[in-house]
Amino acid sequence: MKTAQSQVFVVEDDPSMRNALKNLLRSVGLESQQFASAQEFLDASRPDAPSCVILDVRLPGLSGLDLQRELADAEIHMPIIFITAHGDIPMSVRAMKAGAVEFLTKPFRDQDLLDAIQVALTQDRVRRKNEAELAELKRRFESLTSRERELLSLIISGRSNKHVAAEIGTSEITVKVHRRHLMQKMQAETFADLLRMATDLKIPYTKV
To answer: Which of 15, 76, 161, 166 is paired with 107 by a 20 to 30 Å CA distance?
Structure first.
């Protein structure tokens, strides 16, 4: 269950519960940090690693649901597992609609929590991998010249080299050269690769 970088953050105002969760996580090889309030969690530095939050709904100051909103507003996409002794259906619906992985009512089974953590950490690893891949695509796109970016938009629209050449006022041979450079810089082996990359980058194009 453990990966070297995985981190679980526990935001819980009950010291005995925090300690119990710390021991549970340690028993399965998971590293954790404990916080007594939402503000304490927000003020802390967090490692750049796959992670999730075990979050009590009722906390001093900002509530768990308030913290969920604060993280969303700050575009901090960390999976959240809610725990509470005072939950109700509207509260759980609100939490889940806002993206919570799970909403557990105390007392809950240790295995239910561990299963939710596994889901949350897997979800965060996938998100981080996707973000890293998108960042790399953006880096490649930024390496293109202005003419190559113009060609990319035209090429993914399905236009032939001849049509592209006529549209931008150059020769078909020149378009082929630019296209080859474009494919090399984007590290695209096929047109399908290039189209997928352009879609991920949300590059607009006009259909023929």
So the answer is: 76
